[in-house]
Amino acid sequence: MNSFMKWMRGNTEENDLRAFFEETTKDCFNECIRTVAHPLTPKEKHCITACTEKRVRQIQAIENSLEKTIREIKEARV
Questions:
Q1: Which DSSP state fits 11?
Q2: What is the CA radius of gyration of the chain?
Q3: Which H/E stretch holds residue 24?
Q4: Left, alpha or beta for 32 (phi > 0: left; psi -120 to 50: alpha)?
Q5: How far apart are CA 58 and CA 64, in angstroms?
Q6: Are 32 and 44 in contact (CB under 8 A)?
Q7: What is the pLDDT at residue 21?
Q8: For domain 2-77, is the CATH number 1.10.287.810?
Q9: Contact by Cβ (8 Å): 46, 18
Q10: Domain coordinates of the chain in residue numbers?
Q11: Is 44 exposed, middle or buried, given 0-12, 13-18 or 19+ CB atoms closer than 10 A?
């Protein structure tokens, strides 16, 4: 538990962003690339780009939803 609390305190937005992109890159590569024995094809590059953009849009939608909910809660308290 102590190591988790240390991680939480030391975790910055930059680390969160880095972790998001590392996970997204790994997931998109696994989704789009069949074998790494060759240079990426244009189709594979397009797939990775589209996958990454989709995930970024999903995160933005979640952030927007959370922001809206927080704003509504604050306005209800006034």
A1: -
A2: 18
A3: helix 13-32
A4: alpha
A5: 10
A6: yes
A7: 82
A8: yes
A9: no
A10: 2-77
A11: middle
Report CA-CA distances (Å) from 66 to 14, 15, 72: 20, 20, 10
CA distances from 59 to 5, 44, 50, 52, 78 (A): 25, 23, 14, 11, 29
pTM, two decimal places? 0.67
Place of tokens 């991680």: 7
Contact indicator for 49, 18 with CB cutoff of 8 Å: no
* pLDDT tens across the length of the chain (78 residues): 456 555 555 667 677 778 888 888 899 999 999 888 889 999 999 999 999 999 999 989 998 999 999 999 988 887
- Rounded CA-CA distance 3/63 in Å is 28
* Pair 60, 24: CB distance under 8 Å: no
Contact 8, 27 (CB under 8 A): no
